[in-house]
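Re: your question from the hallway

Yes, I did run it. Sequences:
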Amino acid sequence: MKHTAVLKWAGLALTLLIVGLVPLPRHSAQVRIGSKKFTESVILGEMLRLITTNAGLDSVHYREFGGTRIVFNALESGEIDAYPEYTGTIQQEILARENVSDDDAMKHELQSRGIGISKSMGFSNTYALALTKKRANDLGITTISDLKRLPELRLALTHEFLERKDGWPALARHYDLPQRNVVGVDHDLAYPQLLAGEIDVIDVYTTDAMIYRSDLVVLEDDSKFFPRYDAVWLYGLKAAERHPELLAAVRKMEGAVSETTMRELNNIVESHQRSESQAAADFLRIKLGIDVEEQKVSWVRMILNHLGEHLDLVRRSLLPAIVIGVALGVFCQRYRRSGQVVLAVTGLLQTIPSLALLVLLLPVIAMLGLPSIGEGSITAVVALFAYCLLPIVRNTFTGLEGIPRGIVESATVLGLSRSSKLAEVELPIALPTMLAGIRTAAVQNVGFATLGAIIGAGGLGQPILRGIRLNDVPLILAGAVPAALLALLLQFVIDGLEYAVVPRGLKNARSVRE
Amino acid sequence: MLEFRGVSKAFGGRTVVPTFDLTIATGEVTVLLGPSGCGKTTILRMVAGLETPTQGEIVVDDLVLTEQTLPDVRRRLGYVIQEGGLLPHLNAARNVTLMARHEGWSRERRESRLSELVEMTRFPVEALDRYPIEISGGQRQRLSLMRALFLSPQLLLLDEPLGALDPMIRAGLQRDLKEVFRRTRATVLLVTHDLIEASWFADQVCVLEDGNIVQRGAFADILERPATNFVREFVNSQVVAK
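Structure:
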């Protein structure tokens, strides 16, 4: 009898922890393929997935889960087994410090890291600078050198291009370019701005479909700055040993994709005629004579899948955060000085930009040997957990602080032990405030969880990211609307819970004068 | 029996109770009387273990109050404060039976004790399933009293128990409270600034000024033979006012 209430809270905490921490049976595929966050990479990833599947392997494709560094690190740590890359990027970016001078040196260096490299898939996708044809004609420029005499031009370059060793700073030095009006922008958002005339020059990939659809002029690299960007496969040597079919599939794609073909594939996807999977399947059927089953996933099915992934992210971050957050809130109220530190730290966690937090966490999680990317990613869960803490800790603290002294003291004099007092008096009285904090955390969490897609953790952020990449508004809405509804639903559920568990005596808290 | 032996209390550098010596015999009702800020509540809180004396010791029956004996002492005392200190999330019955449930009393035993106390404190039975915010101030104090009495304490501590009530309700509760003191035969320490309450309840009255007992005796003595100017003024202020 004595400890019933204490046991009840402990049981509730344990239940929440168990439900929150138990992982769903993770689909452990034989081969995991990755791709970077642009259309071409996703199409190539789909091709390899389809070929390996056709060869009888159980393979998955973590689509568009990051930039070069994130995806390469995932390959190096063995979290993915293969992804499409470009020789120029390997040389200038990934192995920049090693200073590999030729293909053999590159191959050798990669090999020492347990990574194999295929021969070229048959096309090169070079970086280039582009303008609209009209603007180029008006200005009368055709080469990068021509930019030298136009210092007032406005440039919008991708963030990756701005930072890369073979990117803007080196290019500007090489050509002695005078432009200062240079901003960083997402690749998919640069085109509309260019077409609207808000900017003059953007960086493009030479296989970019938009170049031909929007009639852009690519400036000639007249003093040969850009290295070759031959498309190749990078794959884990161990994985290739384990599954010879993977290596065979990679070999099959060597020399198989011409630049024209790639551009066409990019075009039919970006003009929304075919999905990446369909485009990849078309290619395999026509060019390689491999007849793969075409995957046509209905919208409802797609949304439900992502909703399921999203809920899983929310479950695994929010439920533990409730338990830990309430415990920390109690701690803060008991131990004032250390409590201030805890509150400050949880507050600080919230100020870290979400993207930065994810990227900072990636290597840490990978180092711990936990799945850092893809389905069941711990990285996303940890980041979401960190964001959830503040409202829960703060509201628990505030709720406990707000209990009138006379009530706590009366309970003390009655002879309740510290734990019983907490379980039977303080937590129940603070419950409405605590629930309000949990509600805030839950709603925030559903929104933040869309960011999980950035590292391949899936969720409703996935269609949003794809939609932004393909400039496909319905696809963006297919992610955004269910996410908003989910947030509303969760709020509704917590309201209902509050109605059910908060006793009448606390409902009109303002009239309690004691 | 309740005994204070050279008890003093200072908060930071400020002395609230300089040296306090007092013995209260078992079954006796003692009233600490004085204006606000005279240290009477601090003395009561020290007995309840909510404040620790800076010096001296407090003895409850055979137990010297220490951190170790505090749980035992608390089991023997009932504590009632102004506004009741009731738990807002529990209904009246559960507020009262909280500790009995902790002690593992059977349902029958709890219910029979509850009906005894309902009768003794004249608490309306139909209000037992209401929450503290749903009952009147007078009922809240009766409830608080029931809760304090539930485990049959030998010592009752009351801090301005009638302070927040309007006069009519106050008169009724005052009468009932005295009857409760008589029937339970508990040792009672009651703190008030109100002369009428003191006169009504007290076997002995201690008038406090800045934490010192300036006069101690029967109520009539205080009224008729005030020992100091302070006592005279304190008494007159209320007699004239009434």
